[in-house]
Design goal:
The protein is α/β, with parallel strands linked by helices. The chain contains 14 helices and 17 strands. The strands form two sheets. Strands 7, 8, 9, 10, 11, 12, 13, 14, 15, 16 and 17 form an eleven-stranded mixed beta sheet that branches. A six-stranded parallel beta sheet has the order 3-2-1-4-5-6, with helices on both faces. The site of L-homoserine has 11 residues, from helix 7.
């Protein structure tokens, strides 16, 4: 058996602790599978005294993760601290500049600096693996980076934030408020340190930016993503969606169009009979549509210690099995120097169906006014429903729900602005885009 692969781990939170435990418990099995033992030589974490339920007595401890990356006697640096800035950034650069292989679960760092880091790794002949950065335990990076080589991808989309999917599922099933469901997701350890990153869509956006580059061979463009979170999704929206045959999911979508690449993260209505509508709780799902393969849909655990540690472990094992010094796979699917400039498609040109929910004064001409503005903007309606707001009482406001056929975002924005201008709306209208999986 070859020499042991020596790894250093920076960050012993939920994921880091799970990884150490699994590496210790499955030591013999991994050594056989990888053809060499994997040993944890060094670790770094903020709190040395915390009981993590793992034995670290024979492992070197570094207070400073950058020092670990720069000086420890290791072959692989595993970064599990998170965050796009230092110390994660400095530590990964220190490791790559020594020619160490690097494994990270850090989507923010990759979304911000992924191209530069990929160039560094490729120049040094080091591997930079990041399976855990997108959709937790689902091997989506490997699928796009390796398995689909030669395919032309037209769309990649999915549920990539376990916290949001958990919240939306719990609201739908139990009729609980958004705040109650978020608290529970935090208690279960799914949410980011700052849950705003989850619920406002930034976490999904970071993941999407990485997938876009792998799918389309363009530069990573995290600031060119249309972004809406789930904070203003109400039980009323969830119920209305169900009645109309849809479920609401927070999707990240990257799509090739005639005018460029669309990258968008927003609450989305998906047909109830589609597979993605059935993906519940913390589970993630990513679909890839490509010309040779057709549609590939991968579903699996997207958040939590074990799911993420499983992906990190796979990345470490790939390094253990690789030929010494061989930089087999370009980090971002194609060599970093050959990534194309990102060409952004305008959101106003997006084409799709729309759900529009409005609370209106109950008076003559409202329905006709709404229908007129839709017609003026050449928007064809799939359905239109009027409901009592709270009680069936002539004086109460009414809820009007429209579902459009495929139309241009620009037309919807103009029609909604005209409706608002008429003065009969109560509060803001809710507009939710509809996404149709290829199978639906
Ligand atoms: N907070 C993230 C989620 C963890 O909920 O999916 C995995 O990136």
């Amino acid at each position: 058996m070859s020499d042991a692969l020596k790894i250093g781990i920076a960050g012993l939170g939920t994921v880091g602790s799970a990884l150490v435990r699994i590496l210790q418990e499955r030591k013999e099995k991994l050594a056989i599978t990888c053809g060499r033992p994997i040993t944890i030589t060094a670790v770094s974490a903020r709190d040395r005294t915390r009981d993590r339920g793992i034995d670290m007595t024979t492992t070197a401890w570094f207070d400073d993760p950058v020092e670990l990356a720069a000086k420890a006697d290791i072959d692989v640096f595993v970064e599990l601290m998170g965050g796009a800035g230092d110390p994660a950034d400095a530590a990964v650069r220190a490791a790559l500049s020594r020619g160490l292989h690097v494994v990270i679960a850090n989507k923010a760092l990759l979304a911000r600096h992924g191209v530069e880091l990929a160039k560094m790794a490729e120049e040094k002949g080091a591997l930079l693996n990041f399976e855990a950065a997108v959709a937790g335990g689902i091997p989506i990076i490997k699928a796009l980076r390796e398995s689909l080589t030669g395919n032309t991808v037209s769309r990649v989309y999915g549920i990539m934030n376990g916290t949001c999917n958990y919240i939306l599922t719990k609201m739908q099933r139990e009729g609980l408020s958004f705040a109650e469901c978020l608290k529970e997701a935090q208690r279960l350890g799914y949410a980011e340190a700052d849950p705003a990153f989850d619920i406002e869509g930034n976490d999904t956006a970071h993941k999407l930016a990485i997938l876009t580059t792998l799918a389309f061979g363009s530069q990573i463009a995290p600031d060119d993503i249309y972004l809406e979170g789930i904070t203003n999704i109400s039980i009323e929206d969830i119920r209305a969606a169900e009645d109309l045959g849809y479920r609401i999911k927070l999707l990240g979508v990257a799509q090739r169009t005639e005018t460029g690449i669309e990258q968008r993260v927003h609450p989305t209505m998906v047909p109830l009979d589609s597979v993605i509508a059935q993906v519940d709780g913390v589970t993630n799902a990513v679909a890839i549509e490509s010309d040779i393969l057709g549609e590939l849909l991968m579903v699996g655990p997207g958040a939590g210690g074990n799911a993420t540690a499983s992906a990190v472990l796979g990345d470490i094992a790939d390094i253990a099995k690789s030929r010494p010094g061989a930089q087999d796979v370009p980090v971002l699917g194609r060599p970093a120097r050959e990534l194309e400039p990102y060409r952004r498609a305008r959101m106003r040109s997006h084409e799709g169906g729309y759900f529009i929910r409005m609370t209106v004064e109950d008076k003559a001409g409202v329905f006709a006014g709404i229908a007129t503005h839709m017609a003026e903007n050449r928007i064809s309606l799939e359905s239109i429903v009027q409901r009592p707001h709270k009680h069936v009482d002539a004086a109460e406001p009414k809820t009007i729900i429209l579902v459009t056929h495929a139309t241009m975002e620009d037309a919807v924005r103009k029609a909604v602005a005209a409706i608002k201008g008429d003065g009969y709306l109560i509060g803001e209208p809710q507009v939710i885009r509809i996404e149709r999986p290829r199978e639906a």
